[in-house]
Design brief:
It contains two helices and six strands; from the N terminus they run E-H-E-H-E-E-E-E. Helix content is 19%, strand content 39%. A hairpin with a 2-residue loop joins strand 4 and strand 5. By secondary structure, it is an alpha+beta fold. The chain has a single domain, classed as RRM (RNA recognition motif) domain (Alpha-Beta Plaits), CATH 3.30.70. The chain is elongated. It starts with a strand and ends in a 14-residue tail after the last strand. A four-stranded antiparallel sheet has the order 1-2-6-3.
Length: 95
């Protein structure tokens, strides 16, 4: 489970839960097959589809001398499970 960072709870992701789709942020270097294998192995579910998109890093207000800081980019996966399977709620990222 090293590749999955945390679950995402936005308006869209909560709406997708009704379609048996779960959203989480993952390591940017992880592949779809790795994430699928981890989810199926750890939660004991069957994954039928995975969609992903790469979100850009954001600029930060704090400056380190002449260089403006930024956060790292990350990848978000939307995982669709077979009907009858579900994933227990994951913990939210602490802010």
């Amino acid at each position: 489970m090293d590749g999955i960072k945390y679950a995402v709870f936005t308006d869209k992701s909560i709406r997708l839960l009704g379609n048996n789709q779960y959203t989480s942020n993952v390591e940017s270097g992880s592949t779809r097959t790795e994430i699928k294998h981890w989810v199926e192995l750890f939660f004991g579910v069957k994954v039928i589809a995975m969609n992903s998109h790469r979100l850009p890093g954001k600029g930060r207000r704090r400056r380190m001398g002449p260089i403006m800081g930024h956060t790292m980019h990350y990848r978000r996966m939307i995982i669709t499970l077979q009907p009858g399977y579900s994933i227990p709620p994951l913990r939210k990222k602490r802010t």
